Amino acid sequence: MGGINGENQPGQTAIDFGFLPKEKRYRLTLMADGDHNMAFREQYITVTTKDNLPVKWLPQGGFAGYIEEL
After folding, report:
1. What CATH number is attached to the domain comprising 48?
2. Which one, 10, 19, 34, 56, has least CB within 10 Å?
C-alpha cells in the first residue's frame, strides 16, 4: 500500500486495516517521511483488522507499506 502527498504542505492520513481477515495478526513494514525531505523512517508494526494507524507526511512526501501474515 502507499500514499503520496502532491501538495506543498504537510498532511496526514489514517490506514484502516479493516480489510484484513479477522483473528489473524500481520506485520506491517512502513516506510514514511522522516524529519526532513531527505530522510525517511522505517517501522515494523504488528496490526490486526481492528487497527487504524495515523501516518504523517511532509510536503511532496508519502509512504509505502508491505503487510505479511505472522
Report:
1. 2.60.40.1180
2. 19
